[in-house]
Structure formats: C-alpha cells, structure tokens
Amino acid sequence: MIQFDQVTKRYPGGNEALKNLSFAIDSGEMVFLAGHSGAGKSTLLKLIAGIERATSGGVLVNGQNLSKLRPSQLPYVRQHIGLVFQDHKILFDRPVFDNVMLPLNIIGFDRRDAAKRVRAALDKVGLLGKEKAMPIHLSGGEQQRLCIARAVVHRPSILLADEPSANLDRAYALDIMELFKSFHQVGVTVVISAHDETLMEDYGRRIIRLREGQFAA
Amino acid sequence: MKHFLYLHLLSARQALVKILRQPFGSLLSLLMLSVALALPLALYLGVESTQAWVGKLTATPQISLFMELSAEDADLAAVKSSLAGNPKVKSVSFVSKAEALAGLEKRNGLDGLAADLDSNPLPDAFVVTPVTLEPGELDMLQKELSGLPMVESAQFDASWAKRLYGMVELVRHLTLFLGAALGLALVLVTHNTIRMQILAHRDEIEVSKLIGASDNFIRRPFLYHALWQGILAGLIAWGLTSWLVATANPAVREFAQLYNERLELRTLTAFELLAMLAATGVLAMLGARLAANHHLRQIEPH
Ligand SMILES: Nc1ncnc2c1ncn2[C@@H]1O[C@H](COP(=O)(O)OP(=O)(O)OP(=O)(O)O)[C@@H](O)[C@H]1O
Ligand SMILES: [Mg+2]
C-alpha cells in the first residue's frame, strides 16, 4: 500500500513540485498518473521510491513512513520496488544481460539462480534473443523493454513506471501497457505515468491527474 | 551470516581479478609504490641486522693510553699506580711495546719484522676499562687520563663505535620517518586510485543507488580493491628487499670477516611480514574509505 498524507515537496531553490497532496493506492492496484510536463509526476514517483524526500507530510510505503526513516535505510525500501526511469538509466558499457542482473547483485541473489531469473525477465519482455547485445544496438522500444526487465527481475511488490510509452508508436505503447497489466494480474501494485491520457482511458483504471503539483479537476 | 560472508568473498575475488587485469599503467603505479615501500623496509632490516653487533661494540668501551716513546720504567710505574688509585677505573692491562710488536707480527704474518727494524716504533700502552658506561663521564675520564705525565694520547676505543651507534640511531629515525611518509603516500595514492575509479564508474554507482544499493554495497568493491593493492604493494616490496638482502649478504659477510666478525643481513620474520602486510592493507583501505566517503556523497541520490 502507498499513502500520501498532506505531502509537499519543495526543491532547493523554492520550486514547489507537489502541494499538500493526500491519496492512497491499494496493494495490487493499477493506477495511472497523468499531467502535463512539469506537473510533478516524476517527483511523485521519486517520493514513493525514497529517491527524493518530502519537505512536509508523510509518505507511507508498505507500512513504513519514509519521512521517518534514516537516509541509510532508504536503499532497502527501494529494493522492494521496481523502477522504470523516465531517462532509462541504462548502463551502456555492458550487455543487456548484465544490465538486468544489476538489481539481483544488489540484493545479493545467488549467482546461478540469478542467471535463470534474468533470462525469465528477458523472456517476459521479449528480449531473450538479445541478452548478449549491447544496449546501444537496441531500438528505442527495445531499450524501454530492457528497463522493464530490470525493474521486475527481483520481483518487487511495487512497480513504478515513469512515462514508459513516451516516444513509442501507439501499437508498441499498447504492447508495453499489456506487459504492465500482466504484472498487475499477478498481484503487483503498478503506477504508470504518462502525459498521453488516451492510452489510459482504454483501461478503465483510476487516473490521478496532476496540474502544477495539485490534483486537476 | 553465511550469505553475508559469501557476498564479501565474492567482492574480494572480483576486486583481485580486476587488479590483475588492470591496464599496464596502474600496475606501474603499484610497482612504483612497492619500490618506495622497499626503501624503508631495507633500512629497517639493515638497522635490525647490525644492531646486536653495534650494541656489543659499544657495551665495552675501553680507553687506550699510549705512552711517549721516551717513557722510562719509572714513568710507567707512576702511571700504573695513579691508574690503580683511580676510582673510575675498573681494570687496567699493560701492553708493552715488545708485546705490541710481537702481536703485530703474529697477526699480520710479518715474521722477522722486529729483526728488520732498528728500534721498536710502537709505544707502551695501558688498556683501561672504566667503571662507567655513560658517554659524558667517559669523555671526562679520557681527558683526565690523557693529562697524566708522559702519556702521549688517550684513545677512546669505543669512540668510533659510539659514532657508529649514533649513525645507526640516525638511520633508525630515518627509517621511521620514511616509513611514516611512505605510509602517508600509500594512503594518498590509493585515495587517488579509488577516486579515479569512482569517477569512472559514476553511472553504475548512480544507477545502483537508484535501484537500492546501500553505501556499504557500493563502497565494498572499492575497499577490497584498495586492500589488495596495499597487500600486493607490501608483498612486492618484501620480494624486492629479500632479493636485495640475498644479493648483498655475501659481500656483507666477507666485509665482516675482515674484522673477525660475523655479520649478516636478515630478512623479515613471518610475524613482521604479516604485520607489514596488515599495515599496508589497512592504510590502503583508509585511503579508499576517505575517497569513497568524499566522492559517493557527490553522486545522486543521497
Ligand atoms: N531536481 C530538481 N530541482 C529543482 N526543481 C525540480 C527538480 N526536479 C523537478 N523539478 C521541478 O519540479 C516540477 C515538477 O517536475 P517533475 O519532473 O516532477 O514533472 P513531470 O510531471 O515529471 O514532468 P515531465 O512530464 O516533463 O517529466 C517542475 O517544475 C520541475 O522544474
Ligand atoms: Mg517526469
């Protein structure tokens, strides 16, 4: 479960990205996050992942109040979350396989089981044949799939995807959405942001609309 | 717990493999460090090896009183009785000029030397063993004795040994100073190596942090890298000095034999070797820790 309690996020320099937001996302729910550029979508996701900290208010994730945790404890919260970053954060100096392996290394997964897990994740996103490829040789859509494989390889209970369908054609974007739906169907809490609402409306899920850091009507 | 150990082992092994596969340039800097460390190590061994010998030399100072060549028996008797009455003198032995010449012939295999000489060129001498071992008092005694009638000179046998002892002390201080300076150099060099590595792995570190790597996890490979670097540098330094000792020892032995002494440079004991490797390892890790703390803080997220 994810719960925001009167959360305000002010960046250094006085920029208020989120203003007094309160909402909750149930365990196993699939939710969309909509809003124009600068509305605060990425900021909201980063607060859930403990990458940024709330200026005031409480952020509860899986029963833990992130605002009360010491900075040194935040990494362990992140280990239970899968993240698809808006700017991908792919490591281009190593093949696809090693990129997907990274989260398993971090949680200290047994090496042999890890290789199986990595292949399963790559299979799930349709990249099994490309495990030895360098990421620079992947298409934009394939890079996006690589990010998704890396986000789910350690089987997190929460999956946060920041504009995973940006810059993809509609058919490809729908493929990606189906992928997220399949994770949702096995019980993962999924939060997906996008500024294109037409894609979300087909799914009949809850949409949290943001405008300048507040709920839009 | 087992899992924890497994992770550490994995890190240690990966770091070692990485060091051994390093580009030639970084191996060169490792070698440079080792050569630098070999210097105080060699000095240390030099001091440690000669110490017992030098100590033996200085522990029995003696003052030799050489009489004027024209000294008569009466003069000798006068000096002898004044020495006997001196409370600072422990014992006295007399070496007559004839005995001295005979000794010289025998030692140097110059039989018949005395016969060839018109007169004995050597002086009569008293060898005085003083009560005190304290250098200041010894100097006073030497002055006092050289003032006795018909005494040509009073030579302090131990004076050169004392000088040697002082020199060894100096070298010992130099060793300490060099050791400390190079220990510091070890910290700084690893600090720099690790800093470069962190900068080179910036992206990986950032992504790892973003997906849940703790600071300890990120630091671990760098600390192990530093540990191995320190240990390897120590080992190479040890190898270099062992080689140096082995090469120098025949010459040292031969030299010592000229003075009827047995002297040999020794290598490090197992305990000393372990202590040194522990020290270089810890110092290198200290440098890495400082670099990691400083530079990891600059990589988002915090
Ligand atoms: N690190 C930062 N420092 C200062 N201001 C920031 C920072 N990150 C975001 N902001 C500001 O916070 C506001 C919200 O940014 P955010 O990235 O959350 O928007 P977004 O909805 O994700 O936009 P986009 O669709 O363009 O990704 C913006 O005004 C942005 O300028
Ligand atoms: Mg964004």
Automatic annotation (TrEMBL), chain A:
Bilayer topology: Peripheral membrane protein
Superkingdom, natural source: Bacteria
Compartments where found: Cell inner membrane; Cell membrane
GO terms under cellular component: plasma membrane
A Gene Ontology molecular function term of the record: ATP binding
Keyword entries, A-Z: Amino-acid transport, ATP-binding, Cell cycle, Cell division, Cell membrane, Membrane, Nucleotide-binding, Translocase, Transport
Principal subcellular localisation of the protein: membrane
One BP annotation, GO: cell division
N-terminal signal peptide: none
Database matches in Gene3D superfamilies: P-loop containing nucleotide triphosphate hydrolases (3.40.50.300)
Function of the molecule: Part of the ABC transporter FtsEX involved in cellular division. Important for assembly or stability of the septal ring.
Protein name stated in the entry: Cell division ATP-binding protein FtsE
Source organism of this protein record: Pseudogulbenkiania subflava DSM 22618
Organism phylogeny: Bacteria, Pseudomonadati, Pseudomonadota, Betaproteobacteria, Neisseriales
Gene name for this UniProt entry: ftsE
From TrEMBL, chain B:
Protein name, UniProt field: Cell division protein FtsX
Listed transmembrane segments: 27-47, 170-189, 226-246, 267-292
Membrane topology qualifier: Multi-pass membrane protein
Keyword annotations from UniProtKB, A to Z: Cell cycle, Cell division, Cell inner membrane, Cell membrane, Membrane, Transmembrane, Transmembrane helix
Example of a GO biological process term: cell division
Annotated localization: Cell inner membrane
Entry GO terms, CC: cell division site; plasma membrane
Domain FtsX extracellular: 62-153
Record's keyword annotation contains Transmembrane helix: yes
Organism placement in taxonomy: Bacteria, Pseudomonadati, Pseudomonadota, Betaproteobacteria, Neisseriales
Family membership: Belongs to the ABC-4 integral membrane protein family. FtsX subfamily.
Subunit structure: Forms a membrane-associated complex with FtsE.
Pfam families recorded: FtsX, FtsX_ECD
Domain ABC3 transporter permease C-terminal: 178-291
Known role: Part of the ABC transporter FtsEX involved in cellular division.
Keyword Transmembrane helix set for record: yes
Chief place where the protein resides: membrane
Organism whose genome encodes this protein: Pseudogulbenkiania subflava DSM 22618
